[in-house]
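so ive been stuck on this for like two days lol. basically i have the seq below and the ligand is adenosine-5'-triphosphate, smiles is in there too. i just want the complex predicted, nothing fancy, no docking runs or whatever. if the output looks off dont worry ill sanity check it later, just need somthing to start from for the group meeting slides
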Amino acid sequence: MTTPASDIVIDVHGLTKSFGDKVVVKDLSMQVRKGLIYGFLGPNGSGKTTTIRMLCGLLTPDAGKGTCLGYDILTEQNEIKRHVGYMTQKFSLYADLSIRENLEFVARIHRLENPEESARQAIEQLGLENRAEQLAGQLSGGWKQRLALGACILPKPQLLLLDEPTAGVDPKARREFWDEIHTLAHQGLTVLVSTHYMDEAERCHEIAYIAYGDLLTKGTVSEVIAEANLTTWQVSGSADSLASLAERLKGMSGVEMVAPFGSVLHVSGRNKTALEETVRSLEKLPGLEWKPGEPTLEDVFIDLMSRSQDNFQ
Ligand SMILES: Nc1ncnc2c1ncn2[C@@H]1O[C@H](COP(=O)(O)OP(=O)(O)OP(=O)(O)O)[C@@H](O)[C@H]1O
């Protein structure tokens, strides 16, 4: 079934951007449907922020074209800015103003008709009532991010671009922040969010993985895992025996990735038969238990990243 054009909020093709002689985003195409939470993942410096800035009209691509909220990213950047909420990595508010004062201030900047009422609604929506008079500078990381989100949704954007909104925030606050994102998406807002956290990636409706400027994979979490076509074995044992096994596995037939996850070693590769033969040859080693396992999203990303790094070097 094809999606009606009006349901596609981001539709860009061939986006390319260089800084000096460094190509930071290469021929990137992506489509995001309305009401979706779309996760944007990839190693540091892979071009996520640059892409986000091209989508919201803050940067002009060197090549490529497309629309955001139906507006042309090359010629209608001001329209896009008017309808998009962008929470940057270093989004900051006035530390010596209260939550309420900060929100009223933002509402005034956006020339909202009734700043006090808009701020009140945002405070209610984000469950900040008990803290409305607290100074923003005294808030914990999680509450600060929630306030920043409140400021972004004040002008009632149709699209939210969140650049690593929960970096450094504790797990409980991250979970609450994500509950809020889901509520907003349920109300029809589209959200593009960059993150380094796997649990957050798994809470997205769709994800895209970008490394060194190349968009390597996209789809739902299960599509991305299936497409990677990885076979994974999980080995448990003592820390010492796993460490020496990891060394021994390097370069063995069928072994493309070895990654420790706590007290379990994940051994993955795309050639199922070759990997199985290697596993059979090592199964008799004492103190180790081998189990066929399902590859996780993290296995897939580690594999994608190491392969793209190889191509990059
Ligand atoms: N204005 C700029 N001038 C020069 N280089 C830049 C500029 N903006 C970004 N870069 C470079 O482009 C590359 C991609 O940066 P970008 O911030 O888009 O990556 P990212 O995926 O968002 O990284 P992170 O996860 O660390 O935030 C980096 O090497 C960065 O140093």
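Residues 5-97+140-223 form a domain with the Rossmann fold fold (CATH 3.40.50.300). The two ends are 41 Å apart (CA to CA).
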